Amino acid sequence: MTQILPADKAGVTQAATLLRAGAVVAFGTETVYGLGADATNAEAVAAIFHAKQRPRLNPLICHYGSARQAFEQVVADARALRAAAAFWPGPLTLVLPRRPQCSVALLTGAGLDTLAVRVPRHPVALALLQAVDRPIAAPSANRSGQVSPTSARHVMDGLAGRIAAVLDSGPCEVGIESTVLDLSGTTPVLLRPGGITPEALEACLGPIGPAAVSGAAPRSPGLMLSHYAPRLPVRLNADAVADDEAVLAFGPPLPGGCCRFQLSASGDSIEAAARLFEGLRRLDADGARLGASRIAVMSIPEAGLGLAINDRLQRAAAPRTG
Ligand code: AMP
Ligand code: MG
Asked: Using one digit for the tens of pLDDT, what is the confidence trace for 271-313?
């Protein structure tokens, strides 16, 4: 059963309590309805992907109640401070380097060293974020492949029964997603057009790089939204393990290997998704220290989040360019 909570004080408090307990709760912003979970809780974030049936573990935007809270977790340079002063709270997302002490789960940012952060301006969303007092990861609150919802009714049409609650704050005012601007490199790059126009951004920041070409052109790792991949080569669907391999295990582990990280002893795909990026990082570090020549990944069934996990592992195992 999915509860529809009114956007009054009691409803906001209840939504905040659910979020702090690790539940998935949809809430309205000025752009579209977001599907929120505690961004510091990897299992809660994995449950977002499960509810949406997203076939990919892509990075999610992290929402904050204030710029100060956001900039405690990512590094803001002069450009980021200027953009935040001009457009926050509002429909602008900034991609910035994570700070070492950043409490956001690696899954939220799909293992990348950068994090997408935003302070929305919808008063109910702000009240919720302030009540939760934790960063909230939130993609749009629709099933994968369907259009973004701009009312609580739309959310229920797609996700009733799959999430704990929806906080009904009425129809969304902007109706399109936030603009995503990457400020992690020397030139600002528009990754996704949205609620703030490129003209408004250029008036604030000067020249901005071209909008990301979607699909066609392959991007080399390290450029823009490349995916996270460990330094060690990755071998998939291992059914036996050599002594010089670091093992990413799923279910009863294979014998052998120089070190091992268990994604889920019980074979639970949500737990495994929650631990995936931590596991790859750990094996990369431990493996390098122990002289491993690669990471061997046990096979993971495609059920539940298995499909999304395998998509990410296939990218990590693909031949490297650049
Ligand atoms: P959605 O989940 O539909 O709200 O989309 C989030 C958008 O933010 C997508 O376009 C992502 O590619 C982008 N995004 C989130 N985090 C990052 C990041 N660390 N680097 C680059 N793009 C990001
Ligand atoms: Mg979406």
From this structure: 999 999 999 999 999 999 999 999 999 999 999 999 999 999 9
Residues with CB under 6 A from ligand 1: 58-61, 95, 109, 112, 114-116, 139-140, 177, 180, 182, 191-192, 225
Per DSSP, the three-state class of 260 is strand
Could you tell me if residue 77 is inside a domain?
Answer: yes
Ligand 1 geometric centre to CA of 28 (Å) = 18
Strands 245-249 and 25-27: unpaired
C-alpha–C-alpha distance, residues 10 and 14, integer Å = 6
> For the chain, what is the domain count?
2
Measured CA to CA, the distance from residue 25 to residue 23 in angstroms comes to 6
Q: How many residues does the chain have?
A: 322
**Does residue 300 share a domain with residue 172?**
no
DSSP alpha helices (H): ranges in 21-114? 42-52, 67-71, 78-87
The Å distance, Cα 31 to ligand 1 centre, comes to 15
Residues 200 and 252 in one domain: no
Q: Whose CA is nearest to atom 21 of ligand 1?
A: 225
Measured in angstroms, how far is the CA atom of residue 48 from the centroid of ligand 1?
Answer: 15
Q: 131 CA distance to ligand 2 centroid (A)?
A: 25
pTM: 0.91
Residue among 192, 214, 226 to mutate when testing ligand 1 (max atoms within 8 A of CB): 192
Residue 165 and residue 5 in contact, taking contact as beta carbons nearer than 8 Å: yes
Note whether residue 211 is domain-resident: no
**Are 307 and 257 members of one domain?**
yes
Domain assignment of residue 216, yes or no:
no
Task: Render pLDDT for 216-275 as a digit per residue (tens, 0 to 9).
Answer: 343 433 333 468 899 999 999 999 999 999 999 999 999 999 999 999 999 999 999 999
Q: Are residues 47 and 161 in the same domain?
A: yes
- Whether 228 is in a domain gets the answer no
Tell how far the Cα of 5 is from the centroid of ligand 2, in angstroms: 22
Q: Considering every ligand atom, which ligand is closest to the CA of 179?
A: 1
Give the closest ligand to the alpha carbon of residue 144: 2
